Amino acid sequence: MLIATEKKQERDALANFILNGESVNIDAEPEMPLLWAVREKAGLVGTKFGCGIAQCGACTMHLDGQPVRSCSTPVSMAEGREVTTIEGIGGVDGMMSAVQQAWISEQVPQCGYCQSGQIMSATALLRDNPSPSDDDIDAAMKGNICRCGTYTRIRRAIKVASGQLEPRSEEEA
Amino acid sequence: MNDLTPGEKERSKLAKWSRRGFIGAGVLAGGGLLIGIGVRPGNPIGKLAPKVAGGAGEQLVNSWVKIDTNNIITAIVPHCEMGQGAHSVLAQMLADELDADWDKVRVQQAPTDGSYVVTDTARMFVAPFTMNAADWIEPTWNGLFTQVARMADAMLTGGSSSIRTTGQHSMRIAGAAARGMLVGAAADEWGVPAGEITTENSTLFHKASGKSASYAEFATAAADQPMDQTPALKTPDQYKLMGKSKARTDIPAKINGTAEFGIDAVPEGLDLSYAAIVRPPVPGTSVVSMDSARAKSMKGVLQILNMETFVAVVADSYWQAQQAANTIGIEWSKSASPIKTMDDQYAAFAAALDEAGETGGEEAAKKGDAQSTLGSAAKTIKAEYKAPYLAHSPMEPINCTAHVADGKCDIWASTQVPLMARSGVAETLGFDAENVTVHHPYLGGAFGRRLGVDEMTLAARVAQATGYPVKVIWSREEDTQKALYRCADMARMRAGLDGDGKLVAFDHVFTQRHDPAEACVPAIYNIANTSVRHAPADLHLPFQAWRSVDHSQQGFFIESFIDEAAHEAGADPLEYRMEMLKGSPRHVAVLKKVREISDWGGETPKGHAKGVAMVESFGTIVAEVIEVDMTSGKPKLVNAWAVCDAGYVMNPDGFRNQIEGGIVFGLTAAMYGELELVDGAIKQSNFHDYKMLRMDETPNIEVAIINSGDVPVGGAGEPGLPPAAPAFANAIYAATGKRLRTLPIAKQFA
Ligand code: FES
Ligand code: FES
């Protein structure tokens, strides 16, 4: 297959950070949002683009453990810091985190597009607050839009993950 | 995969293919049973039969079921998975009738790369390497797949009906017939009566002799067995998988970042560039001139393309492309549309309604004599309602990756209509359809937005111009402002009440009628005299079906107005509806159940109130009660209860998820949804001004299911939506006495 190779311009900027535990060197100018650096340059596409203006939360990543809207966070802000994406929150060997397991037991996703961001927000919430109230859940999750409308399931899954509710059974009618 | 040309086909090795009626069975070369399933006449798709079937008895094939020699059962269906869980439910239906091992059943979407609709490679897909279908299918194959799949994509995946049609008419019958053939083959081999053979977990048993065998062992021999075209299907008491909330198979990949959506496509071996686009702010206009000097000098920018109807900026990254696109100054041609603002649009609607007057317009439904009954009624009320334009706003922005080289085009896109995309792209590029391959990963939401092909043809043009592969991403702003929309509408209704307050005449005239045709008729109620009229008026923005289509406006108009009639009669709005449902036990049961679970009429906290609405759409009856809290002076959604009768629900949890989603979608539109026009262009641009309900604004939702029959007749994706807006507005009326005849609601309490 023939692909024009001369089209690429020379790059001068390099961004360095720790992505899901591994040190990466990315060819991206400093103002490029972390979202695009990770998706297009590092090739991890689990984090999604939804709005580009910090309104929807689809792009949520953790920067040194804190949830950030990566569409509106320049890659320069991640310099030398730890970036965690949806690909990096499971346990070793493909094990799922408690949050992910609850997302399965409560059958949360519909289209699934927002769910990386939802899970990143919920993971940060539960790490800081192991038994969140409804108000805590509202406050931590209202930055994440789900166009499919899975909010009531997300709320339930957070309560299941925090041991406040029993998981759903497949056999129920 | 091995591409054979017609001349190379090894006719001598033709596998046996029998066809009787609408299912046929054949041997998979290499062993195994293949069943092709057609759509029976009488289904909506049946209209196509005369056009593509070659002769009497010939049927359309739209799904396949194969049982491999490794005991894996695969169903290949024309429906895409866009979050509705259709694939998993279809698998449940097939596996249950077949008594299959649930863990060994797979459902795949038929691919729409060139190969699926082309005879030879289609066979390759169904049975890699050696499958040969018999000649009978030959003359119709191309037309058949193109047309059936087009219909299937456009109508079935879009119409809440994957389960209704493919599930009920294909999966269950194929499963039961295949089971019968497997039993027959085992009975012959073992020399025992078929009636003594039992099946479970993809295994055949003969108790008396102690014999057992996996389905795989008899899959090939089964193809020689007579096929029962009308096999006995299980009754609900025999269901093992149907009616159970089996976990969806697509979910695990959606919680760890591995599910691939269209926007994630990174085709192997292709060095992608990225494009941002700028389309005309006012529909139908084009580029007159453009100033792109600054964009050209920006880092990473590779090419700026003036394509007349849009401008594309190609760069090393999407972000660079979008940054550059934002700096381009474009002068667009003048629009011929006289509509510049929503006031203009509503004035156009009003003019059409004025012209229709009290009796004019196209008759949509008529019963008795509404006009004279209105004249003699003890009381009459009338009202005018409005609904705005809405965007679909699927969470995954519109995008398409395209590569055009060597006379071939590959595209990767999240689409509800892959085959239409294929022919659309082929036409745009002037290619033969077989030189276009559409790869379609998961859809990040659709709601009707992905029924069009614009983004695919646009990306193909960009990729043709560049010559290298390009991923085109529409910014959220592009999709909000320059796409296709749920249409605005206006309606005028009149009701006549007799001395007891009973609704005896109903007249309704409105301007927009798309689909389904019956959405404008309050057919669930016994109203002696009804007149429903359509007075068409032009739309400024292009139309696209939007979740539940006409029901989204008509549900609001009709169910709000019925509420007005109830209050005029001094009746409880729920009991008023109940009175009108007499003789319709399914509807009565639904309404009674929602009365019960919502504690209708019970104590509510001060400032709270409940509203009810009931709509039957896509075969499912849904009644909803919404509770609002008006204590702050602004509406807060507290609770939503929904009771649904879809006949029989195959996967209750999956069904509930869809209904919950429909309620949130409907309440989002009711609370916030509105596109306004400024000089003919849409004002709202992104989620800050085109708002969505969020976690803290979403009510508790409880969904109850009534299984009134033993067949699934109703859809799940759309029917939850239509009652949400009117129940919400009716609750606000109950709390405040303020009747909301226009949407959205939030700004009326700002
Ligand atoms: S894409 Fe970052 S918040 Fe929406
Ligand atoms: S699951 Fe589709 S947007 Fe949340």
**Largest sheet of chain B, described in full?**
7 strands, mixed
Helix coverage percent of chain A: 25-40%
Which geometry of chain B do the CA atoms define? globular
Total strand count of chain B, please?
Answer: 29
Overall number of strands of chain A: 5
Supply Rg of chain B. Answer: 28 Å
* Total tally of structural domains of chain B: 3
CATH architecture of the largest domain in chain B: 2-Layer Sandwich
What's the order of the H and E elements of chain A?
EEHEEEHHHH
Beginning-to-end CA distance, first to last residue of chain B: 62 Å
Strand order within the widest beta sheet of chain A:
2-1-5-3-4
Describe the structure.
The complex is a heterodimer of chains A (173) and B (750). In chain A, a hairpin with a 2-residue loop joins strand 1 and strand 2 (22-26). Chain A contains 5 helices and 5 strands. Chain A has 173 residues and is of the alpha+beta class. Helix content of chain A is 28%, strand content 12%. Chain A has 2 domains: 14-88, Ubiquitin-like (UB roll); 92-161, [2Fe-2S]-binding domain (DNA polymerase, domain 1, Orthogonal Bundle), CATH 1.10.150. In chain A, strands 2-1-5-3-4 form a 5-stranded mixed β-sheet, with helices on both faces. Chain B is of the alpha+beta class and 750 residues long. Chain B folds into 3 domains: 19-252, Aldehyde Oxidoreductase, domain 4; 262-334 and 398-473, Aldehyde oxidase/xanthine dehydrogenase, molybdopterin binding domain (Aldehyde Oxidoreductase, domain 4); 343-389 and 485-749, Aldehyde oxidase/xanthine dehydrogenase, molybdopterin binding domain (Aldehyde Oxidoreductase, domain 4). Chain B has a 7-stranded mixed β-sheet. In chain B, strand 2 and strand 3 form a beta hairpin. In chain B, helix 6 packs across helix 7 and helix 19 packs across helix 20 (724-736). The longest helix of chain B is centred in the N-terminal third of the chain and has 29 residues, at 162-190. The termini of chain B are far apart. The chains are: A alpha+beta (173), B alpha+beta (750). Chains A and B meet through helix 1, helix 2, helix 3, helix 4 and helix 5 of A and helix 8, helix 10 and helix 19 of B. Bound molecules: FE2/S2 (inorganic) cluster (FES) (2 copies). One FE2/S2 (inorganic) cluster binds at residues 49-52, 54-59, 69, 71 of chain A. Chain B: Keywords: Membrane, Transmembrane, Transmembrane helix. Chain B: This is Xanthine dehydrogenase. Chain B: Residues 256-336 form the Aldehyde oxidase/xanthine dehydrogenase a/b hammerhead domain. Chain B: GO terms for molecular function: oxidoreductase activity. Chain B: The chain crosses the membrane at residues 21-39.
